[in-house]
Write a structure and sequence with these properties.
Strand content: 5-15%
Order of helices and strands: HHEHEH
CATH topology: Rossmann fold
Number of domains: 1
Distance between the termini: 61 Å
Number of helices: 4
Shape: globular
Oligomer: single chain
Structural class: mainly alpha
Strand order of the largest sheet: 1-2
CATH architecture: 3-Layer(aba) Sandwich
């Protein structure tokens, strides 16, 4: 069944994404830890699309994980991708950069 192979490969790939919809979702925190250890960022920003309630709920857990296990400042930004919150996001990110620069 040749047609089943691409479908299985796509299924495996999509199910391998550590999405907030998958539970338990420790792989997302593990992946985040690997990226933090590899890149050593000065801060971590969690960008959440307003309509994605799973990521919004999980953001608290992600922030706690970053603070307790790694220590850099953590900022959650929630947006609906409209231009309406551009100024608010800019202000938050600039404040984060000022905090990191100190």
């Amino acid at each position: 069944m040749v047609h089943g192979i691409p479908v299985r490969a796509m299924t495996r790939r999509y199910l391998d994404i550590p999405c907030a919809c998958m539970t338990p979702n420790e792989r997302r925190l593990d992946s985040l830890s690997q990226m933090i250890e590899q890149f050593r960022p000065d801060a971590v920003i969690d960008f959440v699309l307003t309509a994605c309630h799973s990521y919004n709920v999980e953001s608290y857990k992600v922030g706690r994980h970053v603070n307790e296990k790694h220590g850099p400042p953590f900022l959650k930004i929630e947006s609906d991708y409209s231009d309406n919150d551009e100024g608010q996001i800019r202000t938050k990110v600039e404040a984060l950069f000022e905090m990191v620069a100190k």
